[in-house]
UniProtKB/TrEMBL annotation:
Domain Manganese/iron superoxide dismutase C-terminal: 136-240
EC number: 1.15.1.1
Domain Manganese/iron superoxide dismutase N-terminal: from-to ranges: 45-128
A Pfam cross-reference name: Sod_Fe_N
Cofactor requirement: Fe(3+)
Family: Belongs to the iron/manganese superoxide dismutase family.
Summary of the function given for this chain in its UniProt record: Destroys radicals which are normally produced within the cells and which are toxic to biological systems.
GO cellular component: cytoplasm
Positions annotated to bind Mn(2+): 69, 120, 208, 212
Name of the protein this chain belongs to: Superoxide dismutase
Enzyme class, broadest EC rank: oxidoreductase
Species this protein is from: Aureimonas phyllosphaerae
Record GO terms (molecular function): superoxide dismutase activity; transition metal ion binding
Amino acid sequence: MRRLTLCTTFAVLTVTAGALAPIHSANAQQNAPATAETAAQSEPFKLPELGYSYDALAPIIDAKTMELHHSKHHQAFVTALNNAAKTDPSIANVPVEELLASVSGRPAAIRNNAGGHWNHTFFWQIMAPEGQRGEPSAELTSAINESFGSMDEFKKAFQAAGTSRFGSGWAWLIVGDDKKLAVVSTPNQDNPLMDVAETRGMPVLGNDVWEHAYYLTYNNRRADYLSAWWDAVNWTKVSENYAKAMEG
């Protein structure tokens, strides 16, 4: 009788294990697409393409700096922002601009990483290879002359904002609520779209003055970088930014 009990128990275990195996496999097959879809949904923020090669801005910005800046620094902001979305899924479907507009009520991770993501995406677009940079539009040139006196005076004001920014940050040309141009600077990865910005407005032009943006070529010579950078500016895109800001 004891032997029969053991055999019966073994039979039950054998059947149970056999029954579980195909169910487990079926679930794995059914869940595979869902897992891939879930993974895609868990990373709503993507690293944008540059639109040009890493060496396209040389010698103004060298290829290694561009590669590190885009594939490492910008990617780090995107990765961190996606991690923040896992903690707070409600941000996954919110445009980055909306996150920035309400950043005072959000965690520091959102402020830093949404700011870094937006700033760099903007930065790549306002630079272009030689032959694709264009000229400032007549409307933008007129507005610059009205606000600063001349293009040269504007560049001086912009470079002063960049060189005087203590530590890391950005220099910006913005269109304010009064539809006038202004040069401002923000710390870290802040920008004028944020509700915490000292001066708010729509960015038209911006330059990254973190050391990683220029150190391999210019070392600690930020002023030299700011001066050389004008030769990489995509004035066609900047003029488009100005036109859109004036329409808004």
